[in-house]
Amino acid sequence: MKIIYTLLFATLLMACGGSKSIYEDKNITEKKLEKLIREYSANPSDKYIADQVKFAYDYLHNQYQAGITQYQYSSTLEGKESLLGYYINLQSFYDRIRGYSTVSNLLKPGTVGAEIEKTKLELVSGYYEQAAEWMDDNNWRSARRAYRSLTKVQQWMPDYKNTRQLMRQAKEQGIINAVILPLSAEGFYYNNRYGNNNFGNNNMGSTPRLSEQLVNDLGGSYNSGGWYRVYNSWDVQRQNVRPNWTMQPVWTQLQMDNPRSNRYDRTVEKQAEIGKDTAGRPIYKKLTATLTVTEVTYTATGRLELRIMDDDNNERISNRSFHENYSFKTSWATYKGDAGALSNQDWELINAPRNSNNRDEELMEQRLIEKMYQNILSHLRGQLNN
């Protein structure tokens, strides 16, 4: 019997020691409070559980109150927005607790509805006044700031005063008309085959393609959902548009090196049937050929600078460089020996054009631009939406 009592006592100790008391818990969460509430609902006469419920509730309630105290007297709109967030979270906490009818009288959750409405009105009126001040500056930068302030008004009070009308005005005033000029070049076009040739603003083959592609991918002049309308230089003149920004892509380096040649020999073999013996078995002969393969590598290096000017204020907004390399290889071959030893791939090399100066400079330039293009496009879009 003594052994049985000892085992029961040990079991009780393990049960008590296996879970941390709520009074010792440094990380009380609503989930833990809800668990205690369910235990209390199953046994509402248990004072020990009731005290734990109160303790956990007060702990969480004090956390919300600490946040409210921190921002209660803030004079900034950001501080008032944080205060409003704490009030809303506290009210949600009250509402969740009130949903448990068994503890509603025990905990007596309150309400901060009046505080929410008061803080919301202060916040909304503050953002509205801020937007009105930005609009008075009458420029695209301030109009965008005004629009962002008005979105805060819309977030908390969609029908506050004439917010929707002001947002439409701010959107229109904040739109930038930008022109993308054709790709030009300055400095030297490095070409080791022909020497250094200063080509200034030569009309290069890919010049119109770059600016046109950028205009198209940025939505052109029909970009109704964004903060900008983009034109090429021809449309600016044709539509008599006064651009706010001028975007100028410029080659500051374009180097196309002399071809690099590499020549090597490769031996190929094949067993070919040349007849049959008296028993009807095939007779094979080893055919051998030597391929002399010539490989020529072409390399181009380019640095393109994208210059963005604010024409209204005669200020440079951005001056970003993009650097890329491009290379490709061409091969051909001659052979000596038995033609029967050659494969289809060998014949393709033998029949390939033999021209070590087969360099399409316009194509190489275009490949450089293709490698840079997505970064150029992303940079332009980011600047226009800034």
Primary descriptors:
alpha/beta; disordered N terminus; 8-stranded mixed beta sheet; single chain; flat; 386 residues; Rossmann fold; 48% helix
Care to describe what's here?
The chain folds into three domains: 20-111; 119-174; 175-386, Rossmann fold, CATH 3.40.50. The chain has helices at residues 2-17, 30-42, 47-71, 77-98, 101-107, 113-136, 140-156, 163-173, 207-217, 233-238, 344-351, 361-385; strands spanning 176-180, 184-185, 189-191, 228-232, 245-256, 260-276, 282-310, 315-337. The chain is α/β, with parallel strands linked by helices. The radius of gyration is 39 Å and the shape is flat. Strands 1, 2, 3, 4, 5, 6, 7 and 8 form an eight-stranded mixed β-sheet that branches.
Question: Layout of helices and strands, plus pairs?
Answer:
Layout: H1 2-17, H2 30-42, H3 47-71, H4 77-98, H5 101-107, H6 113-136, H7 140-156, H8 163-173, E1 176-180, E2 184-185, E3 189-191, H9 207-217, E4 228-232, H10 233-238, E5 245-256, E6 260-276, E7 282-310, E8 315-337, H11 344-351, H12 361-385
Parallel strand pairs: 1-4, 1-5, 2-5, 3-5
Antiparallel strand pairs: 5-7, 6-7, 7-8
Helix pairs in contact: 2-3, 3-4, 4-6, 6-7, 7-8
